[in-house]
Amino acid sequence: MRRRVSRLVALGFGCGLAPFGAGTVGTLWAWVSFLVLDRWLGDAQWALLIGIGIAYGIHACGKVAAELGTDDPRAIVWDEIIAFWLVLWIAQPASLAGQFAAFVLFRFFDIAKPPPVGYIDRRLSGGTGILADDIVAAGLALFVIALWRSWT
Fold first, then answer.
1. What is the 8-class DSSP label of residue 70?
2. Mean pLDDT across the chain, nearest whole number?
3. What's the whole-model pTM score?
4. Cβ neighbour number for residue 123 with a 10 Å cutoff
5. Mean of the pLDDT values across residues 67-72?
6. Burial class (CB in 10 A: 0-12, 13-18, 19+), 32
7. What is the DSSP code (8-state) at residue 15?
8. Are 106 and 27 in contact (CB under 8 A)?
9. pLDDT at 83 over 70
10. Which terminus of the chain, N or C, has less C-beta within 10 A?
């Protein structure tokens, strides 16, 4: 994993090697790393980091998936990391309880794959497909958060 940056990134700095629940472990890593990085990053830096993370993630995840010989290996968790960073960044400010709710919502949409997440997951392939369904799941989580905030 450490021999190639693409593997290090795609496998979420080792989170994807968790024996079970790799996507959840990757999302938890995203949460912790967001809390650490958010002390130093403003909106412009987050936008740049997420934009570069998506662009490089498409390349890295596609390359690693091809190396592993499968469309979307469970060990690839960069898609969860980048998508959950997006959720947390847009949902700020949020209490720890609000961030936990965002975590649960994102994991629900990522695992259950309701429309349009499942549609994207089935239609796109390669690195684009690996990241796209998680970004759409992030969008659904953000939609629910926005609805909740508008009602309270």
1. S
2. 96
3. 0.96
4. 11
5. 92
6. exposed
7. G
8. yes
9. yes
10. C
User: Which residue, 55, 84, 57, is CA-closest to 72?
Assistant: 57
pLDDT of residue 152: 82
Contact of 12 with 32, CB cutoff 8 Å: no
Q: Which of 92, 97, 109, 90 is nearest to 27 (CA)?
A: 109
Q: How far apart are CA 9 and CA 82, in angstroms?
A: 10
Structure tokens at 136: 């759409």
Count the neighbouring beta carbons within 10 Å of the beta carbon of residue 132: 21
How far is Cα of residue 21 from the mean position of the Cα atoms in its chain? Answer: 14
Nearest to 105 by CA among 122, 120, 84: 84
pLDDT-derived band at 2 (thresholds 50, 70, 90) equals low
Cα 27–chain centre separation:
7
